[in-house]
Design a protein that fits this description.
mainly alpha; 2 domains
């Protein structure tokens, strides 16, 4: 994760997300630099628009509209009750083989 955070920090500060810059940021954080992780991250970021990806990520993590917190709680409670019933049934079947 520290490598991703370093890449995001470089991007946010307007610096180039490169191997050398990533090494510097990670080393400055006091973390031992792993060359293979840095190379892998740089390779996976080739051609990626970080701003666009961050915008999409925030849309995904946003709560869906129209669902109140009370509705979510009711669904979770019903799901837990169903799980308990299923677990109890499984326990009984184990007794009788």
């Amino acid at each position: 994760m520290q490598y991703i955070y370093a890449a995001l920090l470089l991007h946010k500060s307007g610096k180039e997300v490169s191997e050398d810059n990533l090494k510097k940021v990670v080393a400055a954080a006091g973390v031992e630099v792993d060359e293979s992780k840095i190379k892998s991250l740089i390779a996976s970021l080739k051609g990626v628009n970080i701003d666009e990806e961050l915008a999409n990520a925030s849309l995904i993590s946003a709560a869906p509209k129209g669902v109140s917190s009370d509705e979510g709680k009711e669904d979770k409670e019903e799901h837990k009750k169903e799980e308990k019933k299923e677990a109890a049934a499984e326990g009984l079947s184990a007794l009788f083989g």
